[in-house]
Design a protein that fits this description.
The structure is a single chain. The chain has 10 helices and no strands. By secondary structure, the protein is an all-alpha fold.
Length: 218
């Protein structure tokens, strides 16, 4: 009877365990760090799953458990590396909050990680899945924070309540992407601050005749 109960217990435990080996978060983080490290040393074209796995000291199968190709790994690695840098502050001024975050974004683009952005945007023109990963893993989380920042500005009376938030953000960040990708002129802090000031002043212009006071941008 004891052998029968023990056998039944083993069967129950086996049924509770999910199929396959459990994924290791340590291995996943090692893969992300290795991807960034390799992209700082060489181009995106030279990046390979084999090189990532070797640098992270894991098997190729471990990499493929999380990502279908090197582009997906690169996007996730980039998004993870910028997570703590690109949060929006809450200073009480929509201009300061937006310009500070945009300047932080400029710093990322001018760092070795900027090549990842260029590579993803270029490859994404012929790879819808890759550009979708970029939107999902990087762009949309940042945009949700930007919405909150702009809504705080609306509540403080700095911006109109009928403001098209997506249009405003496309203009602000589109100006940065334009110079970053086309390289027709210098992309620096002064440019970012001027773009932010001009766009936000333009957005607030229809409030100038309102009875309440509108905060000015320096």
């Amino acid at each position: 009877m004891a052998l029968s109960r023990q056998s039944g217990s083993h069967e129950q435990n086996a049924a509770k365990r999910p199929p396959g080996r459990p994924r290791s978060e340590d291995a996943r983080q090692a893969i992300l760090r290795s991807t960034i490290k390799l992209l700082r040393r060489s181009s995106f074209a030279d990046l390979s799953i084999e090189a990532i796995a070797a640098n992270a000291k894991v098997g190729k199968a471990t990499v493929y458990r999380w990502w279908p190709n090197k582009g997906a790994v690169a996007v996730d690695a980039f998004a993870s590396s910028t997570e703590d840098e690109l949060h929006f502050p809450d200073s009480g001024s929509v201009y300061k909050d937006m310009s500070l975050q945009m300047t932080q974004w400029l710093g990322v683009l001018r760092s070795p990680r900027g090549c990842i952005v260029r590579a993803v945007i270029a490859a994404g023109q012929s790879d819808p899945q890759l550009i979708d990963e970029f939107r999902k893993r990087f762009m949309w989380p940042r945009r949700q924070e930007a919405y909150q920042t702009l809504r705080r500005g609306i509540e403080r009376g700095e911006l109109p309540r009928d403001l098209d938030l997506d249009l405003l953000l496309d203009i602000l960040y589109g100006a940065i992407y334009m110079r970053f990708l086309i390289r027709h002129d210098e992309l620096n802090e002064y440019y970012v601050e001027e773009v932010c000031r001009m766009v936000l002043k333009g957005a607030a212009r229809n409030l100038l005749s309102a009875p309440h006071r509108v905060k000015a941008y320096r």
